[in-house]
Amino acid sequence: MPLLGLQLPDLTDSIWDRVGRTSSLPEILIMGTMSQTLAIASVSALLGSISIDVASADAAKFATDFSVDIVSGDFLVGETFSGQVVYEDEFITGFGSELIDPFSGVISLNFTYVGSDLTTPTTYTEADDDASAGFPIFFFQDGELIGLNYFAAIAPDLNFQISEDPLGSGNFAFATDDFVTFAQNTGVLSIGETTAVPEPALLVGLVIVAGSAALRRQR
């Protein structure tokens, strides 16, 4: 019940035992507040360290933007289309020519091109290629992404692909094929900036630590 016009906090017997049954009310309130603050800080620090340890145990993830400029053909000449790939570096040493596939580091790919009407923007992903056969493939030179081998169907008789041309050259090209007259248009692949992808567990740990710090400042 209220004491001297104040509502007592829900203090446990353990706090009463620590401060003594004869302690004054201000002392009890101060100790209760300090106990809560220390508990929050300890739990936050623990969760933060656990999250950071989990993140560091995993392979680092990276995202790289890319674009395709259509330079010749029957349609879309002069247009630019963009995409992004996400991958893990667990299977990349950073030395020489290397590649990864859906079984060894490829996480996702998205590329916005056109649909079967050759007009409507349509986003294609790694699922549109043949993952069971080990595609798409990402190519690296000394740890840097330099190209892709990616194929997707726009319609039953129309597809596009990004591939090394010729094989082993290190030069990657884009083409839309109809299987009859073949290349309907061709394009140039450009690789953009690569950025690290923050780990969700690490972000959670940082948010908790930041929140507890803000709580301490308010108190």
Number of helices: 3
User: Given the C-alpha coordinates, what overall shape results?
Assistant: globular
Strand and helix order = HHEEEEEEEEEEH
- CA-based gyration radius: 29 Å
Secondary-structure-based class equals alpha+beta
The rounded distance between the terminal residues' Cα atoms is 25 Å
Total number of strands: 10
Short synopsis of the structure:
The chain is built from three helices and ten strands. By secondary structure, it is of the alpha+beta class.
Characterization of this structure:
With 219 residues, this protein is α+β, with helices and mostly antiparallel strands. The chain has two domains: 13-57 and 200-218, no CATH class; 61-191. It has helices at 13-19, 25-57, 200-218; strands at 61-73, 80-88, 97-100, 106-114, 121-125, 137-141, 144-155, 158-164, 172-177, 183-196. It has a ten-stranded antiparallel β-sheet with strand order 3-6-7-8-9-10-1-2-4-5, with no helix packed on it.
Supply database-style keywords.
38% strand, 10 strands, globular, 219 residues, alpha+beta, single chain
